[in-house]
Amino acid sequence: MQGNDTVADLTSVSASGATRTNAGTATNVVTAGLENNYTVTTANGTLTINKAAATVTANSDTGKVYNGSAQSVSGFTATGLVNGETVDVLSGVSAGASGTNAGSYVSVASGSDDNYDLTFVNGSLVIAKAALTVTGNSATGTYSGHAQSVSGFTVRGLQGNDTVADLTSVSASGATRTNAGTATNVVTAGLENNYIVTTANGTLTINKAAATVTANSDTGKVYNGSAQSVSGFTATGLVNGETVDVLSGVSAGASGTNAGSYVSVASGSDDNYDLTFVNGSLVIAKAALTVTGNSFQRELHRLCRGRAGQHTWGFERPAERYPGGRGQPRNRRQLQQCAGGLWGQCQQL
Questions:
Q1: Phi/psi of residue 258, nearest 5 degrees
Q2: Model confidence pLDDT, tens digit, residues 134-143
Q3: What torsion, rounded to 10 degrees, do the Cα atoms 91, 95, 100, 105 define?
Q4: Which of 76, 178, 275, 326 has a Cα-to-Cα distance from 20 of 20 to 30 A?
Q5: Which residues pair with 149 in a beta bridge?
Q6: Contact, 56 vs 112, CB < 8 A?
Q7: For residue 66, what are the contacts with CB-CB under 8 A and spacing of at least 6?
């Protein structure tokens, strides 16, 4: 411009102006006609709207648990949006992650927008391991004299189409036992990709077999003045051809001296048998005894005096005759007559 001229002196010059909302540029077009004092060269202007700065953060989900199927997270949030705008305006932006196995996956946000200069922050998808219980198999039997066993395990908590074959670190020791009692089927588990494994051992239980022990009896003893006894026992219910020799903890017996009946008591226990006891008996009969009365011998000497002279009689045994002299009595009656009468006085010497 020259001298005191002003823009107002330019009668043919104008600018269209420019208007824009979204980021980008608009042209302010200048036009000029014929001016009296100026040869006008025009240059358009530009309206430039820069993108606003915004941060896009991919959504995260850390609460998933392995279920054998694909699981995912999607979507995002944004800060820095202007004029009340929401993430809906960011149509060129996406974010998400997907996974099946337990683990952590990155949810990546990406894209662009016409009006925002975007900064991206990743999110995460976390799939936790599922809980799984492995229980060793158990079995119960009765003592048979043969080895008995249990093996394997059962699983609770498998997901999707998973099978026991997918558990690469799980095993069970199994258990074998012959005698009554218990043995443990031990379950072990290492690190599984998709499961947190809880183990429970199994048990092999062998119960005692039932057997009856009967104490021996002896009913044929006779009193002999000394102690007499019965011992030993028999058993029924023993398995696998076993004999009473295996019942080392059992005893039975009774002892007595006098005639009478004695109880033979069986008692004890055994590791492999649940025992029922039946008593026996010891009977000592009375001995036979013959009692004979003792014989009594006595000699009587009598003197009988009379007119016939002196005579002596003696008693030795009742069955024998009485020795004597002339006119001797032949029996007890005659002797009494002698003592009291005609023969004179009889005296016992």
A1: -75, 155
A2: 999 999 999 9
A3: 180
A4: 76
A5: 176
A6: no
A7: 100, 101, 102, 127, 128, 129, 130, 159, 194, 195
Evaluate whether residue 103 is within a structural domain.
yes
Helix (H, G, I), strand (E, B) or coil at 94: strand
* Residue 293 within any structural domain of the chain: no
**Structure token pair of residue 148:** 């008995």
- Contact in structure between 329 and 337 (CB atoms under 8 Å): yes
Rounded to whole angstroms, the Cα distance separating 35 from 41 reads 11
Binning pLDDT at 50, 70 and 90, where does residue 219 land?
Answer: very high
Last residue of a domain, one of 143, 173, 207: 207
Provide the residue range defining the domain that includes 269: 210-285
Residue tagged 């915004």 (tokens): 54
Quote the number of domains for the chain. 5
pLDDT single digits (tens) 169-193? 999 999 999 999 999 999 999 999 9
Q: Is residue 291 part of a domain?
A: no
Residue 23, burial from CB neighbour count under 10 angstroms (0-12, 13-18, 19+) = middle
What DSSP assignment string belongs to 245-290? Answer: GG-TTEEEEEEESSSEEEEEEEEE--SSEEEEEE-EEEEEEPPP--
CA 308 to chain centre: 122
Three-point CA angle 218, 222, 227, nearest 5°: 80
Give the C-alpha separation, 289 to 232, whole Å: 32
